[in-house]
């Protein structure tokens, strides 16, 4: 306890590292638990006792179907439900999520967070969760009601005109009312029409419903009511209790939340790993500085176990303090994340803030266990200090035998990791190679950490010769200080190495993916423009007609995706395959390589193509007959006219047929809408056609027109956004690593107090002293950066070889990013040295010389 409080300043940065790591874990758990609570309340409040829906509807209530219209059931079902035993009331409703809503200026009112846009009929069930705060509920086709959050975000008011765009057409109406949520709205935009208008706008016909909401009579359980209703309507409809509907929604949302939670916890784990190096360095230096003190304790009777326990007790206290503060900071991080999500349109109320009892327990256990484990080696080293150490003026000598063992072990691990990476790069299958890649990454990382002191001796000398020698004696002293304790320098550099290795690896992979896709676009795409929705919405017939009517077009190609089961000549059935149905001009728009036949022949009547892997698996050759059972149609017997190569990126694994062939077996009212539309301008009219296309689709803001340059930039931006998000999460580990450099330098200055006093006494100025410490910090930071960037580029290049098996064959090293990170590391070193250098410069010379 005395040692801890005597050196609380030296412990502070280690406590901050523990605090940050625990806070990130705790914040992640609180944030995801709060989101679960929010959605649970929403699903419980919006679910009726029993819901009847068309069989094609999903369990989550999602109503989008291939033809852009929601699955419906006849209005006669409502009468049957009302006659069932135990029914207090029943109401037919219509709603759809396959919609776009625009304001009078044709600006999209859909949420930017990815939450759905819902248009439905105003009904009693909605009235339980929504309160009309302005105006009135819609009556008649000219009125619509909007939720208050959407109205506030887009500055909508009563009387404003909006347009609802569906597969049926565009319906315009004026806002008659604004309704506020009685539970937290996670970001959905909701618009209400009267029932008849909703039927005609969303489905295109009256006397149909998407759902029937049923309320149980007093004393009737939901389970019994479901049984009664199911018996009344027959087996052609889906009947769910409130719990079943809520559970299905919860499962759907939970899958997304789990991905996000475990990804964030993974980055927290990286921060913990980096923090381990900081704690090890802190306690190693404290033990070295107290060698004489520990020796005296041993001389007067302290046992090795007692000395060991005293150091571990300090670590335990450090872990407890850091973890307690971290748990509190984690709640603050969770609130901050909720505010951040609010800026993107997903509203989360702090009233739903959920801190489960397990969350602080997990944070405390992690923080304390990691801290104590990290302090174990320094504690063990302290226990080995002999009573004779009390007679020495310097710390205990390094264990040369241990250094040799460490070097050999590090070389073996690094070599084994290198072999794993080589086997990954040489693998014939991506799945097999990914296992070798994972093993190689882990082993090389551990190997570099273990071998760090050996590498420090060589790398620091090289960096010193290149960067420090120009600064004369001060530069040489900085180099020798960094080399004085290679183990310490290696551990400090390793903390920075981990974060930068991941940054370099992901930069190489991301850059290679963009370069490979760009290369494929240049080689394969033969069309000028691609029209699609960035949110995955299908393209309405009205928008397709607008494209076709655009002047200056040579050809327009429609592209649909149909679900089907395929029975192959080997007697097997391949379920849930997709057939990409397109116009015959698609063979020109996408120059897909074939291994047999001509792709244009696949668009002949009753013909199709299959991809190479599928053909080999099922023994399909040119001329083979396959039975295609379309999900929304009948079974067709099609002839295979082409086999496409698997060595592609765009449409890899696609099977093609013509839209005309699909139309023979799928009714027009069930035919899916277009997924994409390709447009090619007449020769020399590309610029004018581009402008005309954008103008033609002005009324359909949900669709984006891109030429090949735009498409490449969009791809680059998407990958760039993902990488920036990952870099942001990795910043936590890098911040902890910087704290490690600061702590190492601060403790090193304390350790060298007498030495610094003597140097000042013989003429070293304060400015020279500060420069020496800054240079030492820079060289340590650059050492870690060199290891991390080199290691990361090796991982990234190996990962790209695996991606090459999937068609991404271009290796692109983003040198500007790599060089920028390396230079930034030097500034990190300078920043980390500011406080230690300032403190060293303020030392009183006489007091420093007198220090024992």
UniProtKB/TrEMBL annotation:
Pinpoint the ABC3 transporter permease C-terminal domain residues: 267-387, 729-844
- Transmembrane regions listed in the UniProt entry: 262-288, 311-337, 357-379, 400-423, 435-468, 489-514, 725-750, 777-797, 817-838
What is this protein called in UniProt? Answer: Membrane protein
One Pfam family cited in the UniProt record for this chain: FtsX
Report how it sits in the membrane. Multi-pass membrane protein
Q: Which GO terms describe its cellular component?
A: plasma membrane
Respond yes or no to whether keyword Lipid metabolism is given for this record.
no
InterPro entries from the xrefs? ABC3_permease_C, MacB_PCD, Macrolide_Exporter_MacB
| GO function term, MF aspect, one | transmembrane transporter activity
Family in the record: Belongs to the ABC-4 integral membrane protein family.
Domain MacB-like periplasmic core span(s) in chain numbering: 12-231, 492-693
């Amino acid at each position: 306890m005395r040692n801890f409080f005597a050196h609380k300043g030296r412990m502070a940065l280690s406590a901050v590292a523990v605090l940050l790591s625990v806070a990130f874990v705790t914040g992640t758990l609180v944030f995801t638990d709060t989101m679960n609570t929010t959605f649970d309340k929403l699903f419980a409040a919006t679910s009726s006792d029993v819901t009847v829906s068309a069989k094609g509807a999903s369990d989550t209530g999602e109503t989008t179907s291939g033809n852009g219209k929601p699955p419906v059931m006849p209005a006669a079902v409502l009468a049957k439900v009302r006659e069932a035993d135990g029914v207090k009331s029943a109401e037919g409703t219509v709603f759809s999520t396959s919609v776009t809503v625009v304001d009078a200026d044709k600006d999209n009112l859909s949420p930017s967070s990815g939450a759905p846009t819902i248009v439905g009929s105003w009904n009693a069930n909605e009235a339980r969760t929504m309160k009309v705060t302005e105006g009135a509920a819609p009556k008649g086709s000219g009125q619509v009601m909007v939720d208050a959050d959407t109205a506030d975000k887009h500055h909508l008011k009563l009387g404003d005109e909006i347009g609802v765009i569906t597969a049926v057409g565009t319906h315009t109406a004026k806002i008659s009312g604004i309704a506020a949520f009685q539970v937290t709205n996670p970001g959905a935009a909701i618009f209400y029409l009267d029932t008849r208008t909703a039927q005609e706008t969303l489905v295109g016909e009256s006397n149909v419903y998407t759902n029937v909401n049923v309320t149980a009579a007093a004393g009737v359980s939901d389970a019994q009511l479901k049984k009664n209703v199911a018996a009344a309507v027959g087996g052609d409809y889906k009947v769910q209790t409130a719990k079943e509907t809520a559970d299905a929604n919860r499962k759907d949302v939970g899958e997304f939340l789990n991905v996000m939670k475990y990804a964030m916890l993974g980055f927290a784990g990286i921060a913990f790993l980096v923090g381990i190096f900081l704690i090890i360095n802190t306690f190693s230096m404290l033990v070295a500085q107290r060698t004489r003190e520990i020796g005296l304790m041993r001389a007067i009777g302290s046992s090795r176990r007692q000395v060991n326990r005293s150091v571990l007790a300090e670590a335990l206290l450090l872990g407890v303090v850091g973890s307690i503060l971290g748990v509190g900071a984690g709640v603050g991080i969770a609130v901050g994340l909720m505010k951040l999500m609010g800026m993107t349109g997903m509203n989360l109320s702090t009233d739903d803030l959920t801190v489960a009892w397990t969350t602080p327990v997990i944070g405390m256990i992690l923080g304390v266990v990691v801290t104590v484990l990290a302090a174990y080696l320094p504690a063990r080293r302290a226990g080995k200090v002999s009573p004779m150490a009390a007679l020495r003026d310097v710390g205990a000598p390094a264990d040369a035998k241990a250094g040799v063992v460490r070097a050999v072990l590090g070389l073996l691990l690094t070599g084994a990791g290198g072999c794993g990476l080589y086997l990954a790069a040489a693998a014939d299958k991506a799945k097999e190679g990914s296992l070798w890649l994972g093993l190689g990454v882990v082993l090389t990382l551990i190997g570099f950490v273990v071998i760090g002191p050996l590498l420090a001796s060589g790398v620091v000398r090289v960096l010193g010769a290149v960067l420090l020698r120009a600064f004369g004696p001060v530069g040489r002293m900085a180099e020798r200080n960094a080399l004085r304790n290679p183990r310490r320098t290696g551990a400090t550099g390793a903390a920075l190495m981990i974060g930068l290795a991941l940054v370099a690896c992901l930069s190489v992979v991301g850059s290679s993916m963009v370069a490979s896709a760009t290369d494929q676009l240049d080689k394969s795409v033969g069309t000028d423009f691609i029209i699609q929705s960035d949110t995955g919405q299908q393209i309405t017939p009205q928008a397709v007609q607008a494209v076709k009517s655009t002047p200056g077009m040579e050809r327009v190609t429609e592209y649909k995706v149909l679900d089907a089961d395929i029975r192959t000549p080997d007697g097997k059935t391949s379920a849930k395959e997709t057939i990409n149905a397109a116009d015959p001009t698609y063979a020109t728009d996408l120059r897909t390589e074939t291994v047999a036949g001509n792709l244009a022949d696949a668009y002949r009547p009753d013909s199709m193509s299959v991809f190479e892997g599928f053909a080999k698996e099922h023994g399909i050759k040119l001329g083979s007959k396959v039975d295609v059972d379309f999900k929304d149609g009948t079974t067709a017997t099609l002839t295979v006219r082409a086999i496409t190569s698997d060595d592609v990126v765009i449409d890899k694994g696609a099977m093609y047929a013509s839209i005309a062939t699909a139309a023979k077996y799928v009714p027009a009212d069930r035919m899916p809408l277009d997924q994409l539309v390709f447009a090619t301008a007449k020769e020399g009219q590309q610029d004018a056609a581009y402008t005309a296309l954008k103008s033609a689709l002005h009324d359909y803001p949900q669709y984006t027109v891109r030429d090949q340059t735009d498409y490449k930039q969009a791809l680059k931006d998407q990958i760039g956004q993902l990488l920036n998000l990952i870099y942001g999460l990795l910043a936590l580990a890098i911040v902890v690593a910087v704290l490690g450099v600061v702590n190492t330098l601060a403790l090193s200055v304390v350790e060298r107090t007498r030495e610094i006093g003597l140097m000042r006494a013989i003429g070293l100025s304060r400015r020279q002293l500060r420069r020496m410490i800054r240079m030492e910090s820079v060289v340590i930071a650059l050492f870690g950066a060199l290891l991390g960037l080199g290691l990361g580029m090796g991982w990234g290049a190996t990962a790209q070889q695996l991606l090459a098996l999937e068609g991404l064959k271009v290796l692109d090293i983003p040198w500007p990013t790599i060089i920028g990170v390396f230079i930034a590391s030097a500034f990190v070193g300078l920043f980390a040295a500011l406080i230690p250098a300032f403190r060293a410069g303020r030392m009183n010379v006489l007091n420093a010389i007198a220090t024992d």
